[in-house]
What does this fold into?
Amino acid sequence: MTDGEWFAPREIRFNRRTTIWLLENLGTLQSGIWPPEASNYTDANIRKKGVSRRAPSATPIEYYTEITDRLEKCGIDGLVLLSIESWGESEDSMARYLGETAWRIKKRYKQALKYVASGPARRWHDSYDKKGKLKRKGETYREFEVRKKESGKPL
It folds into this structure.
């Protein structure tokens, strides 16, 4: 959990900490509002320097869409991650819902988190250099799982 942490949009790197924080605040992001920083002081009349051509709700909705796209690519594993981090379900309750063991749910959770928190570039998109040559082939969630199993690293 990311108790007490707060991230500005420019600080989001899609690493484990920021991804969990985004998942915990997914409902607020969906409504088009960036989660407020935990503080007792609020002043709505503070003006920011510069003028933005973007709607204030554009950034939260973009992050919401990015996270949900990544979760959807994970299928049931993404739903497990979402239910534990956003809805507050426990691993034991998810195990009962899905008819699996708690350790299997934890494994699904960790695997989905690794995929969703895999950095700013989407894993499932092919990456090209300036000349149009393929740099990195996109990878589906299932290909990601197989590669992790074959590498021998624990999930």
